[in-house]
Each structure stands twice: as structure tokens, then as C-alpha cells.
Amino acid sequence: MITSYMRTAPAAANFVFSQDGTKISYLTMGSGPAVIVIPGVLSTASDYVAFARALAGHFTVHIIERRGRGESGPQGADYSIRKECEDVFALQQKTGASFLVGHSFGGFVALEAARHNPSFTKIAVYEPGVSIDGSIPMDWIPGNQKKLAEKRELDAFVEFSLSAGPERVRQTPHWLMKLMLPLFLSPRELKQRLSLLHESIREHQETARLDSSYENYREIAAGVLLMYGGKSDSSWVQLALERLSAVIPQSETQRFPRLNHFGIDKKAPREVAEVVCAYFLK
């Protein structure tokens, strides 16, 4: 049970250098055993501050600013999931973290990191972005690249949202979604997402490259908490959770009936943190 919810405690900004010399920024708050939090696609470390503060009464929480974001260095020409894992390992070496949390693509990174580093003892992933038999759509990428080359960022974001978003929105006309997005997102949120579209393409290309490689997660020595929202309307989520729970040696599954894909960062970060906290402490 979380007994101290740090609503106003500031997050301290720090940095570490990854194996290839890339500067990786991160936010730190709280006290206790160290936890690393890995954000998802189109997200930054600041999006997970509410979740981190809800854990900070029991843990020292470090939110990594993934490559291509904020004060961290660029993804680089040789970007890969291996680079993401090296960034996490560099932060782990500095902080001594044995707990790991990942959301969406960050959950995919967390699983890969845990597979290659047995010093992580427990990890918690919320709807990890694991593609199985092409379950996560990638057909939007060529059109997205073309639109970005033409400086049509909003059109590119609309195309991404319609192709990779929940099934219920995929039949929305492009023109209507273009009108609706500024209503759903604040100016800051929209600006952030548009600025990370190039990074999103490279991250999805890595997801596609490792499609159906989930059997590798039999190698994970850590305990794994698999979390998902009951209102997530994406078929790939259920498939990923089913396959992951079948292959990971030590796994538990937690469903949040009221939440969707953004439960951990936007909808109910404290509710998710309560469950993660209990799992890490037991």
C-alpha cells in the first residue's frame, strides 16, 4: 500500500553516458530501493512523473529520458533495441536498480533488458509493445516517412493514429481525425508528439524487426508483472499478454478493468503504482 504520495516533490535531473558515449538524461525522486522507469513511444520522462511520485514513498525512482528526447542525445544512425538496452544498463550501473518498469515500447525495452541482464530481479510492464505475427501494424510507415519529408507533421501523426491506434478509431476519416486531435491533446502534448514522429518510426522498425521473437523471453530470470487495461481496444495487446504469460518462467498478470493503454501515465498512474509497489515489495 502506498502511504506517501509525493505530490509536490521536485524531480532532480541527472545524466549518465551510455556505452557508445551518448548522453542519457533521467529524472530522480523518492528514497528507497532503486527503480528505473522506461517511457513509451511519443512520450518523454516528464509524462511519467505522476506515476513515479506515487512510487517515491517507497522507492528511489529514476525515469530514463530515452534517446532522441529532451536532454538525451539523438538515436543515432545505428539505432537499435540494443542501444536502448545499453542506455538502461548504464543507468542501472550508476543507480544499482534491480527493479524495472516499462510502458508500451518501453515495456518491450524492459523485457529485452531483463533478458540480457539477470541482475534485474523484478520488472513490471504495462501493455509491452511486443508484435506477434505482424499484430502491431507497420503499413503506415512508408506514408509517414513521405509526409514527414514534405514537412506535413500533423498529417503524419493522423496517419499513425489511424493505423496504429485502437481498432474503434481506425475507420475515422482522415479529415475528421485531423480536426479532432487538437481537441483531445493540449498544445504541449501535440507539439511533443509531432516532434517525436521520426523517432517513433525507428522504434516501430525495431519492433517489426523483432516480430515474433517473444520465445526469447523464456530466458528472463526476473519475476515479471504483466499489466493491461480492460478498455484497451487493440487486439495486439491481448495476444502479447497471452503469449508472454505462457513463455516467461515467473510471471503474473494484472488487469485494470477501467483503464486503457494510457493507464500508467495519464488515466490512473497512482492506481497502477499501487499494484507495482505491492509487487516489488512482496
Automatic annotation (TrEMBL):
Keywords: Hydrolase
Keyword Ion transport listed: no
Domain spans labelled AB hydrolase-1: 35-274
Highest rank taxon of the organism: Bacteria
UniProt-listed InterPro entries: AB_hydrolase_1 (IPR000073), AB_hydrolase_fold (IPR029058), AB_hydrolase_sf (IPR050266)
Native source organism of the sequence: Dictyobacter halimunensis
Lineage, broadest ranks: Bacteria, Bacillati, Chloroflexota, Ktedonobacteria, Ktedonobacterales
Name under which the protein is recorded: Alpha/beta hydrolase
Molecular function as annotated in GO: hydrolase activity
